[in-house]
Design goal:
Shape: globular
Helix content: 55-70%
Largest sheet: none
Number of helices: 6
Number of strands: 0
Bound molecules: heme C
Distance between the termini: 67 Å
């Protein structure tokens, strides 16, 4: 009886919470694999490769707001939204966080106020294009 109760607790209480805690990471990996890896795993057209700390260092130092915004709008051979028109800024940000954190960075999901800054920078960037 006790063991059954413990098993019940693990499956019904602990596991769903574990999945929940990893949901954001999972969506970042998923989007990275689906959209970004085509270019960023092999370095197509000089795309900064995932895991290449040297290539990412300068970008990471420019900061999450700037790099997220500029990537979303598109930079030179980097297509807007990584070429997937339906990608929201939140989804793009998660995929980028996944790449950055595999490449020497320690970024976390943008707060509401950071998201507002990112959207501001996107608007500025679009105006100057
Ligand atoms: C078709 C190929 C391609 C795809 C798909 C792609 N990228 Fe890129 N990306 C590039 C290239 C090429 C560069 C380098 C641009 C340059 O500096 O000339 C780049 C650069 C970047 C940069 C740096 C921008 C800067 O300010 O210099 C970020 C951030 C980025 N990509 C994020 C992503 C994310 C996130 C995805 C997936 C959602 C993605 N990319 C999908 C080709 C791609």
């Amino acid at each position: 009886m006790k063991i059954q109760l413990i098993i019940y607790l693990i499956f019904n209480l602990a596991l769903p919470q574990l999945t929940f805690a990893n949901e954001k990471d999972a969506s970042g990996v998923h989007i990275y694999n689906e959209v970004c890896s085509v270019c960023h795993s092999g370095g197509v057209a000089n795309a900064p490769k995932i895991g290449d700390q040297n290539a990412w260092k300068k970008l990471i130092n420019e900061g999450q707001v700037i790099i997220t915004a500029h990537g979303y709008v598109g930079v030179r051979a980097m297509p807007p939204k990584g070429g997937k028109e339906s990608l929201s800024i939140g989804q793009f940000a998660e995929a980028l966080i996944y790449m950055v954190n595999k490449s020497g960075g320690h970024w976390v999901s943008p707060s509401k106020s950071m998201l507002a800054e990112i959207n501001n920078e996107i608007a500025n960037r679009k105006k100057s294009q």
